[in-house]
């Protein structure tokens, strides 16, 4: 089962990716994570990406596509994978299609989490992140056992600078502008499924499980 999860910031893609990864034994591949891993391991494409990251510039599509393609060659992707945060543009989607074709593979389904601005803003402005291990919490939906302290490692929790309301509104607008062509791209390929990102975590997981069962992907 080879999946792509699309949706605006605050749609719950990361949360569902973790749940799907556990339930279906598929690797959860986050672009941000594999970029950092590639840089840390000093891989050729990682070093190339670092040149741009150090200058605060966007990493070019061809470099990101190359890093993702390398990750998809790992043995743990043999039965499938979940791509979260990639592709972000039609150009990246086309590059991914080409890379997969070279591996004699393709994407089974693209899940688009349609999410209202109200819900996305509420989720993002309430998010708190552990400074040490990066685990996410939410002040209302998933609070830590002790206020301001990570359950997992005891590290301090903080609000990311880009999780304030004004920045979130801008992020949502940018996402909408960039992503509509990508949604259309996968709709034309006939592999796009739209789901409500407004649903609570458990309810949405049930919806996704039903979709996979009906499509005979699970």
Order of helices and strands: EHEHHHEHEHEEEHEH
From the spread of the alpha carbons, the general shape counts as globular
Mean pLDDT: 91
User: How many DSSP H or I helices?
Assistant: 8
CATH topology value: Rossmann fold
Distance between the termini: 7 Å
Walk across the major sheet and give the strand order.
2-3-1-4-8
Number of strands: 8
Radius of gyration (CA) equals 17 Å
- Estimate the strand proportion: 5-15%
**In total, how many domains does the architecture comprise?**
1
User: Poorly predicted ranges (pLDDT <50, ≥5 residues)?
Assistant: none
Helicity, as a percent range: 40-55%
Highest-level CATH class: Alpha Beta
Question: What is the topological layout?
Answer:
Layout: E1 2-6, H1 13-24, E2 28-30, H2 31-40, H3 44-54, H4 61-71, E3 81-84, H5 90-102, E4 109-114, H6 117-125, E5 127-130, E6 136-138, E7 157-158, H7 165-188, E8 192-196, H8 201-214
Parallel strand pairs: 1-3, 1-4, 2-3, 4-8
Antiparallel strand pairs: 5-6, 5-7
Helix pairs in contact: 2-3, 2-4, 3-4, 4-5, 6-7
Offer a few descriptive terms.
single chain; 218 residues; alpha/beta; Rossmann fold; five-stranded parallel beta sheet; three-stranded antiparallel beta sheet
